[in-house]
Design a protein that fits this description.
Low-confidence stretches of chain B: 89-109
Order of helices and strands of chain A: HHHHHHEHEHEHEHEEEHEHE
Shape of chain A: globular
Order of helices and strands of chain B: HHHHHHHHH
Mean pLDDT of chain A: 73
Strand order of the largest sheet of chain A: 1-7-2-9-4-8-3
Low-confidence stretches of chain A: 1-19, 104-110, 140-197
CATH class of the largest domain in chain B: Mainly Alpha
Shape of chain B: globular
Structural class of chain B: mainly alpha
Largest sheet of chain B: none
Radius of gyration of chain A: 32 Å
CATH topology of the largest domain in chain B: Rna Polymerase Sigma Factor, Chain: A
Oligomer: heterodimer
Radius of gyration of chain B: 18 Å
Number of strands of chain A: 9
CATH architecture of the largest domain in chain B: Orthogonal Bundle
Distance between the termini of chain A: 41 Å
Number of helices of chain B: 9
Number of strands of chain B: 0
Largest interface: A-B, 69 and 83 residues
């Protein structure tokens, strides 16, 4: 087999030994996450200490880390291949043939036309404002000066007075050209030449309340596709999940909870859990209302007859298209074939019970009876309904 | 960034095609090697590398020098590779180890003298390559970037245009999936 012989676990030995008197610790999801982060080599000193403690007390953790590191090592040690024959000549030739030049590509598809038109309009407006502004300044300057008389000296003809050009030649680039140049990146992307990757919509929950400036953009982003992923970070998992349950209840949306996730909800130490919530019969408007409410502060009981206002634990949200690998994971957790996630549109709108499911927090877990029940109750997609995977993680 | 890269990029912008040839020569093997693990076969990897270099040339004016030239090129190539894999039918073509052109180079000359070493290496490579091929393109990409290229989460997030949290969770799942695949391989191949 591969050069695994050169690999050694960081704590020495084979990693398979189990020390006497050790407690056999069942590895939780957060522990496994710690171990994979350890393999990635990206953790803070506190997490590193935590891993070392875990490794000291758990043979199972050591064995898992050994496997993970060995696998990473195998990938790392894959033989280095050379491209043959060399690409140099082909590329230089292709460049010469196409007469390609490293310059902006100005071929835009039609869907960029509105942006182009908007940019042109904005440039014209800016230009007009600039001219008016300059004129005001110029006139102002002129009004403060007394025109000097032209003195004729003997037989010499008076030299023509030089009147400054009201629109001096701009030294800087024409703003229209500058704007078009800035647009080029997006155009290049649209025409297939890759530039910076797509930026996803991200907003703070502070801007996502009812009057929030980001709410309409959020709805717009949701309406761009039929399936979407919301990556949400929260200040505190326990508070966030409690709040989510309350908001769903308020909106009469049933929350189906997988028993393993429920166990996590009841666990005091749930900081490192990533909760996965899946819904498929909510519209963008309904989701926006939920998010609005989640972003607002709320009241909790304090003492016998008192209440206190609490700030929302929800912090940031990123909206992404639901990627193929996430769909696969989702399908596994729901116990369905990935193709079964693609639903037909219902011919007519019917009133269905709105429910969402809190999925198991352990990857690869078998679907519970509760999850199966949710799956069995699935109906055709209602008009405007979205497929949404929400990931909630404590920051 | 290497001052040599900067000089070559400047010369390319001035229309010197040979300078770009120098950049291609400098990075083609490294890029190809990563792509080979992403797209499963040498032919596709070569095509993607070629396309990436051409796109990069035409987009050179957008390169601001905020990142290394290779990271920027890699972003272009990875996105091309992933989109190509998504468009393809989910068939798996494995070529590792079976191609004479890609014959195995022994890492250790002493060890390589041992009879059967080259065959074992080729088998192991095939097994790893097979395992990678079973992952989704997104999971494969993060694993290759992390384990082969040694990139940081932030760099990977930049390359793939997703949040760091997504990278973390993709890598986590990819590692567990790889572990399952290897365990299954071990069971079926005692």
């Amino acid at each position: 087999m591969m050069p695994t012989a050169t690999w050694r676990p960081p704590w020495g030995g084979s990693g398979r030994q189990v020390a006497d008197g050790e407690v056999n610790v069942m590895l939780s999801e957060s522990m496994i996450q710690l171990l994979t982060a350890f393999v990635d080599g990206e953790m803070n000193p506190r997490q590193r200490e935590e891993v070392m403690r875990l490794l000291n007390k758990s043979a199972e953790a050591r064995e898992m880390l050994r496997q993970l590191q060995e696998n990473a090592h195998k990938v790392k040690m894959l033989p280095h291949r050379k491209v043959e024959p060399s690409l140099v000549d082909e590329i230089v030739e292709a460049i010469a043939e196409r007469k390609a030049q490293p310059k902006p590509v100005l071929v835009a598809r039609r869907r960029w036309m509105p942006y182009l038109a908007a940019s042109l309009a904005a440039s014209l407006l800016m230009g007009t404002i600039g001219v008016v502004y300059w004129r005001v300044l110029y006139d102002g300057d002129k009004s403060n000066k007394i025109d000097e008389p032209v003195i004729v000296q003997n037989d010499k003809k008076p030299e023509p007075k030089v009147i400054p050009d009201p629109l001096p030649t701009p030294k800087k680039q024409n703003p229209l050209l500058a704007m078009m140049s800035n647009m080029t990146e997006a155009i290049v992307r649209d025409t297939g030449a890759p530039v910076p990757p797509e930026k996803h919509f991200a907003a703070s929950f502070r801007d996502l309340d009812k009057a929030g400036k980001a709410t309409s953009q959020f709805v717009h982003e949701l309406n761009r596709g039929k399936s979407v992923q919301l990556d949400i970070t929260v200040k505190n998992n326990a508070d966030a999940m409690k709040r989510l349950q309350a908001v769903l209840k308020h909106h009469e949306i049933k929350l189906v909870t997988d028993p393993s996730a429920k166990k996590k909800l009841d666990d005091k130490n749930q900081a490192k859990v990533e909760y996965l919530v899946y819904a498929e019969n909510l519209t963008s408007g309904e989701l926006a209302k939920l998010v609005n409410e989640l972003s607002e502060s709320y009241v909790v009981p304090a003492g016998l007859n008192n209440q206190k206002s609490v700030q929302s634990p929800y912090q940031k949200m990123t909206v992404l298209p639901l990627a193929a690998d996430e769909k696969q994971t989702l399908a596994k957790l729901l116990g369905v074939d990935p193709s079964a996630l693609e639903r037909k549109d219902a011919k007519t709108a019917t009133k269905t019970e709105r429910s969402i499911v809190l999925l198991p927090t352990t990857p690869g877990a078998q679907p519970s009876a509760e999850v199966k029940q949710f799956v069995n109750s699935r109906r055709d997609a209602q008009p405007g309904a979205l497929q949404v995977l929400i990931k909630i993680r404590q920051e | 960034m290497s001052s040599d890269d900067l000089r070559l990029i400047r010369e390319c912008r001035e229309g010197n095609n040979a300078a770009y040839g120098e950049l291609v020569s400098r990075y083609q093997d490294r890029l190809f090697n990563s792509l080979l693990r992403l797209v499963n076969n040498a032919e596709d990897a070569r095509d993607v590398a070629q396309e990436a270099f051409l796109h990069a040339y035409q987009s050179l004016h957008t390169f601001k020098g905020d990142s290394l030239f290779f990271t920027w090129l890699y972003r272009i190539a990875v996105n091309t590779a992933i989109s190509m894999k998504r468009k393809q039918r989910p068939t798996i073509r494995i070529q590792a180890g079976g191609d004479e052109r890609n014959s195995v180079d022994p890492l250790d000359s002493t060890e390589s003298n041992r009879p059967g070493y080259a065959i074992e290496m080729a088998e192991e490579e095939r097994a790893v390559h097979d395992a990678l091929a079973k992952l989704s393109p997104d999971h494969r990409a993060v694993l290759v970037m992390k384990d082969m290229e040694g990139m940081k989460y932030e760099e990977m997030a930049d390359v793939l245009g997703v949040p760091v949290g997504t990278i973390r969770s993709r890598l986590h799942r990819a590692r567990l999936e790889m572990r399952d695949i290897f365990m299954q391989q071990d069971k079926s191949d005692p």
